[in-house]
């Protein structure tokens, strides 16, 4: 399948999920799971957030939670910072981040699905958050200037990208020197080939497109990041895990980013 076909299929599934939530049902694509239906609601969704955090959110933001972790618990956000959430869905992590960085900070949510963007905007309004900004676009071509973001977060989205090298290059471009990454994603054990990953679940279900732990580490290192760590948190299929991924952009310029499909060993 071409990258455009994959993206269209992913967009259609998540548009359906957003509409289902807007109508008051939990994600039509697998009750609280990343769209695909193979995994159970226990592997994905709002249970991954503390009750206290869920209490800060409108019901439709928790219903729309399709992530595989809680990046706001991973990224140590500070007052006044600029945060970018890649694939912001119904806005759960953007709303929580906007509250953390306060009125002097800003939380951007980037998503390619209009229905998700509409839902996220309504949720942010209902949550009374004024420093959340939702951007339409793809994570492979982020509509923000270079060196403009302190922290990038993301929840179960990078596995859905058909062009992961472009995503790593964009992370390196938009982050300020010294900037940080705190991501939740689905990650495979290194023993699994791409074919074995695809046997365990679909692409839109956040399984088939998962990078392995070694591929994730190599991609960040090739993009010039330091302090890279990938930590498995819970298994969602045989050899496939929800994981916390962290990395930092060094102080100073990292120059030309030599990220290629070959250097990441993926896709
Ligand atoms: C599994 S959901 C996760 C949503 C949200 N992060 C959460 O935790 O609930 C994936 C989201 O990423 C968006 N998405 C997937 N691929 C994308 C891409 N290449 N560029 C921008 N958004 C993308 C989808 O539209 C969807 O809203």
How would you summarize the topology of this molecule?
Layout: H1 3-22, H2 51-55, H3 59-63, H4 71-74, E1 82-86, H5 92-101, E2 106-111, H6 114-126, E3 132-136, E4 149-155, H7 164-174, E5 175-188, H8 194-199, E6 211-212, H9 213-222, E7 226-237, E8 240-248, H10 261-264
Parallel strand pairs: 1-2, 1-4, 2-3, 4-5, 5-6
Antiparallel strand pairs: 5-8, 7-8
Helix pairs in contact: 1-6
The structure holds S-adenosylmethionine (SAM).
The site of S-adenosylmethionine (SAM) has 27 residues, from helix 1 and helix 5.
Characterise this structure:
With 267 residues, the chain is α/β, with parallel strands linked by helices. 33% of the residues lie in helices and 22% in strands. Strands 1, 2, 3, 4, 5, 6, 7 and 8 form an 8-stranded mixed beta sheet that branches. The C terminus is likely disordered. S-adenosylmethionine binds next to helix 1 and helix 5.
């Amino acid at each position: 399948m071409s990258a455009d076909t994959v993206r269209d299929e992913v967009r259609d599934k998540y548009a359906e999920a957003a509409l289902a939530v807007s109508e008051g049902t939990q994600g039509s694509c697998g009750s609280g799971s990343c769209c695909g239906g193979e995994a159970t609601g226990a592997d994905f969704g709002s249970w991954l957030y503390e009750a206290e955090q869920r209490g800060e959110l409108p019901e439709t933001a928790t219903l729309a939670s399709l992530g595989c972790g809680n990046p706001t618990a991973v990224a140590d956000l500070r007052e006044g910072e600029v945060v970018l959430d890649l694939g912001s869905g119904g806005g759960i992590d953007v709303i929580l981040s906007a509250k953390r960085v306060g009125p002097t900070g800003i939380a951007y949510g980037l998503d390619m699905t209009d229905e998700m963007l509409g839902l996220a905007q309504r949720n942010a309004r209902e949550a009374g958050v004024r420093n959340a900004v939702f951007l339409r676009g793809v994570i492979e071509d982020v509509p923000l200037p270079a060196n403009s973001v302190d922290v990038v977060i993301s929840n179960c989205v990078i596995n859905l990208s058909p062009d992961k090298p472009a995503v790593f290059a964009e992370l390196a471009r938009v982050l300020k020197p010294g900037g940080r990454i705190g991501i939740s994603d689905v990650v495979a054990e290194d023993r699994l080939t791409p074919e074995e990953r695809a046997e365990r679940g679909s692409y839109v279900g956040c399984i088939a497109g998962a990078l392995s732990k070694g591929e994730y580490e190599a991609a960040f290192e090739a993009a010039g990041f330091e302090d890279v760590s990938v930590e498995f948190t819970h298994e969602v299929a045989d050899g496939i895990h929800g994981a916390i991924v962290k990395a930092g952009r060094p102080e100073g310029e990292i120059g030309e980013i030599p990220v290629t499909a070959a250097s990441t060993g993926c896709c």
